[in-house]
UniProtKB/TrEMBL annotation:
It comes from Cephus cinctus (Wheat stem sawfly). GO terms for cellular component: early endosome. This is small monomeric GTPase. Residues 18-28 have a biased composition (Polar residues). Pfam families: Ras. Belongs to the small GTPase superfamily. Rab family.
Amino acid sequence: MRNIRRPIRFRTKDNMANRGTAQRPNGQTQGKICQFKLVLLGESAVGKSSLVLRFVKGQFHEYQESTIGAAFLTQTVCLDDTTVKFEIWDTAGQERYHSLAPMYYRGAQAAIVVYDITNQDTFVRATTWVKELQRQASPNIVIALAGNKADLANKRVVECDEAQAYADENGLLFMETSAKTAMNVNDIFLAIAKKLPKNEQAGNGGSSGQGRRLAEAEGQKATAGNCCK
């Protein structure tokens, strides 16, 4: 019987080092993944849900139903060597849900406060949300101010310079956005991702599945209690 010699495969150090390491499509090794909790706040009908829908799914609906309690979505942003995963809480803007807001921004590493550039009252309300976050949210929370509906600039009542000056005074990121045209939507989330710390502790700071279920359950109970008021 003839002996069949099988080829010997050598495991190199490079092969061993790359085992279990994810690869990007271009062949580069994928860096670490950081997870962050982000909350959207603002008056009803300023376009919070539309901004999230545009960012997460690339879609825009002319007539968006009002959020009840809060909606939860996720999306990732890729930086140079880090993938940032946002756990996004889109909160309802109606006054009767205001008491639920701390449940959603508690433990958040980032927040986007949204106003409508065609409505001065929503800007005033946005400044109130900023003060509440600065007083009650995490000390190092990254806050962005978004002047939404920039596609309606011909109906503008809140000047860009006014909002920029307010943002500068309070250490906020600021952009005018349009969920309809996608103007600056991805950019504002990217700017937040760049400003967030990428250390290991921050990367594990997102809300867990258990915490998410608890928040949803509490929101449902609170919603049920307010439905007839």
